[in-house]
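Quick check before the chapter quiz. The format below is the same one you will see on the exam, so make sure you can read both the input and the output lines.
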Amino acid sequence: MSFQKILCPLLVFFVALLISSSVIANETEQVAIIIDDFGGEVKGVDSFLTGTIPITVAVMPFMEHSTAQAEKAHEAGLEVMIHMPMEPKKGKASWLGPKAITSDLSNEEIRKRVIEAIENVPHAKGINNHMGSKIVEDERIIRVILEVCAEYGLYIVDSGTSPNSVITRLANELDIPCASRSIFLDDTLSSRQHVQKQMGSLLRLAKKNKKAIAIGHVGIKGHETFAGIENTLSLFQKEKVAVVPISHLLDTNVDKDHSDFWKPKEKKEPTE
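Here is the expected output.
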């Protein structure tokens, strides 16, 4: 038997094996865990940025530490997104922070604020809404926001603050990668036990639907959110549910190869 006759079947076998492995990898259940409200000095920030929990960091723009925390998250190997404050139907204006998207703004001012937020939160790959139950129902405003996302190559995640949100419909129309929150892990005063329970629900959603997106928060009880997530990650490993950046649940060009996901970036030596 000639060498070529032996080699060809082997090549066919290995190609088939690679294709099979790729299909299996694509069918693995995956979750993304977004942690909102970075940008200030609140509980949980340091734990998440220096720990080993694979989160996606959502930074509120225009806060005292927004830029620095986005840089630190990026250096730690975490994916960064903008947590854009938007006007709710109910609530205090003080909850929104500076330069929020409100219903009285012109298209030009909305565009200006979103671009400024992109500049204020370096390394951002996407955007989600902070509050915003009023804004996410407003087609005029969301269209302007999404047009900026398209220009800068950002994906968008609907935080799910209104059942009447137009984000998904308009994002699909404009061909912008989009997803919606599956579950909240906490609220303002959640205990770690509550977070652990919600993580269990997230795991079940992932096993059922292949993909799921959770949102938690730093803040008054940010250390409890950190502990609750940390205490349950072993369950995800046991069930072979991977925690990935939110971009990997979407059809984006962001970091297609995530073999270095969560690995700190190498610091370059200064040149003389």
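If your answer matched, good. Strands lie at 30-38, 56-59, 79-86, 124-131, 155-158, 178-180, 183-184, 211-217, 242-243.
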